[in-house]
Amino acid sequence: MNIAFWSSVSGKSATSGNMIAVGTMASLVYSLKTLFVQYDYLSKPIEEVFEGKKNSDIIRDEMSYYRREGIDEILSRLKLKKLNEQFIFSNIKNIRNTHIYYLPSSRKVRNGIDEESAEYLSASLPKTLNKISDINLIDNQNGNRRLSKKSLRDSDVVVINLYQGIEDIEQILEDENIRRKAVFLVGKYDEASKESLNIIRKKYNIEKDEIGVIPYNIHFHDAINEGKVVEFISKSMYSKRNDSDFEFINELYKSTNLILKKAGFNEVS
Questions:
Q1: CA atoms of 212 and 214, how far apart (whole Å)
Q2: pLDDT confidence of 56, banded at 50, 70, 90?
Q3: Strand, helix or coil for residue 214
Q4: With contact defined as beta carbons under 8 Å apart, do 21 and 220 qualify?
């Protein structure tokens, strides 16, 4: 099951953070084998989100020139016609003691990719990953890029990430192929804002069971920067109503269930 996360713009709706939060919650609560794939090169690399930043940016960039892994190595093998399933599986990393997996992020898609590579990443790779995972969560490049268009076309569920005050998403809403498999997620949600969830729903004619929110939470933000997402969500799952992280984890739980139900996991509650 392939779930694509996308937003019309970068940096406002917390698309990558939303995906990380939803996928981690789905794995921890329901023991789903969850695999993260990241095409958005502007976001923090997925490996750093879960395992921390082990080297400086300079060292990482220099080493990545000589040592490819994950998506970059897969694309290189694709061009050489030497790609097989076993090689793909060998590039998947597991977060120890969890059902969470990821493909190391690409540092090359920022320069654009050719038609063959885009088609492979949007369709063939997710199909292969489905053989070993319950759900694949795909962090797409935001906006109207070729790879994102193909990924939205080929995914089973599309999570359209919104922010309070968003405009000009009518074009994506008018696409019937995307609209029928879409759910909506308002990132960095602030209940004190004049643009409430109900106003957003009415503005874009979104049904109540098609939209969720993930409130801004400084502790989750810190956990992403420190590579401690699993630890933070594991601990926050036991928050009481008067705890500072309760609203975040409660809304995350509801939004995760909404997305999983759209993906056909009707046993979630």
A1: 7
A2: very low
A3: strand
A4: yes
Per-domain boundaries in the chain: 2-262
Cα separation, 157 vs 149, in Å, equals 13
Which DSSP letter does residue 67 get? -
Please give the model's pTM, rounded to 2 decimal places: 0.92
Ramachandran sector of residue 257 (left: φ over 0; alpha: ψ -120 to 50; beta: rest): alpha
Output the pLDDT for position 95.
94
The Cα 261–Cα 123 span in angstroms is: 22
Sign for the pseudo-dihedral over CA of 214, 218, 224, 227: negative
Rounded average pLDDT over 25-50: 93
Distance, in Å, from the CA atom of 163 to the CA atom of 183, rounded to the nearest integer, reads 14
Q: Cβ distance 18 to 86 under 8 Å? A: no
Residues 46-73: what's their mean pLDDT? 68
**CATH architecture assigned to 2-262:** 3-Layer(aba) Sandwich (3.40)
Residue type, 127: K
